[in-house]
User: Fold this.
Amino acid sequence: MTDSTASTPHNVIEVRDLVTHYGDRMILKGISMDVHADEVMVIMGGSGSGKSTLLRHLMALEHHTSGTMRILGEDIDKLSGVELVELRQKLGVAFQGGALFSSMTVGENVMLPLFEHTGLDRKTMEIMARMKLEVVSLGGFENLMPSELSGGMIKRAAFARAIVMDPKILFCDEPSAGLDPVVASALDDLILLLRDALGMTVVVVTHELESAFKIADRITILDRGEILFIGTPDELRADPSQRIQNLLNRVAEDDTMDADAYLNRLTGEQPAYRPL
Amino acid sequence: MTPTDARNPIVVTTEKVGRAAVAGVEEIGLGAMMVVESFYWLIFGRREKQAVRLGAIAEQCMAIGIQAVPIIALLAATIGMMLAIQGIHTLRIFGAESRVTVGISFSVVREFAPLITGIVIAGRSGSALAARIGTMKINQEVDALYVMGINPVRFLVVPAMVAMVIMVPALTLFSDFVGLFFAGVYVNLDLGISLAAYMDQTIELLSVDDLMHGLGKSVIFSILIAVIGVVNGASVQGGAEGVGKATTRAVVQSISAIIVTDMLFAFVVTR
Assistant:
């Protein structure tokens, strides 16, 4: 908390040389990136590129191997339990599947962060929850159970829960995955609305190109655990790199592989030099 | 391991046994951590601004305890009558049927009431706990709790564990009464000993120690059920099928743990 002056106030998230492992496998190979205040940062990449891992680290859900991460000026490695809880109240997360608690109504779900972190009386909390449900056009649905909602409504309810504490940063994991184009587009509009009307910084992980170009102020592209590109959508379109053009034009990458290694993989033979 | 000994069955078996042993030790360690952490949140939760909610505990008490009353009553009554039938049958050999109360009162209070209560709660609530935590884990609900700044152990585990520790002994005491009463009813019908005389005899025979023996065991059972349910739920992997496996595992493990602990407890305390 003391050295928060070290980071420019302009950056709400600063990641430096972040290296992470899953078991023995290195997932992120030294990533550095910033997220500016009041922007929509879209993180893109194919399956296995590490974009979901990066998001989990940005939400301080995982421990990294090396590197530093500052969120809202706080080095998350140096925070105590209570400080981390306080920081988390300034972050909102809309999970891919919504992650609404199935034993609670939609209204109770949205109210839960208020209930746990504020001393407000129930009436006030209910009003605040209803207001947030109105923002995501789910007014009047607060007494339904999550199982009674459609996929798009669950995602919107998850957004309402994510913004109920008026967070500084909103994280969205694959907001349009599994939704029809119309509903997906409405969610994109919602993200823009939250940035403009509530002044939030939004970090979105997605693999939908169209949605990324629509909402992004800047785009980060991850590939095999490394950053391939950071810049505005226009810069991305103009980028000469072959791999980026492949991604934009949806050309599958050819894995060039040694013929012997390929044969070994097919036959299931272990190569002799394998350390295990 | 080199490719040649990868096919050696002895090496493969040894490795499997070793890995299983390590996984087992790891699970026991996780369980112990869970107990320690639960105590921590229960005592220091308020200081960390994560107080354990009384409402959540009451809700769990309702689900684990109150709603289990009918089935516990039914089974305790059945066990009581079964003991009376078997006791009278056995003692008839010596012509000592009237002494059946001795066997019934000690068996019910020291063994059968805690055991049957533990087994029913393990099957009813231990499995439900594993399923609930497992489902929440695969639906990212546990992650959602973390990012909201809500500790999942404090929010999910502590209320269930406290409710278990309160309700399992309470239900055990309840099944003591029900079991003894229905055994008495059968004794009354079969041998013609009046219920009042039977109860007099029972109260005379039983000491506080006997009652505490059964209730003490049930406290240990309650912690075992909660911890095994939580650990299995928390280690769910691989979607809905994983939840099913974890639930089954939780029930089998907690019933086994209850029976083994029961024997060990009896051995240590009785000798």
Notes: DSSP finds ten helices and ten strands in chain A.
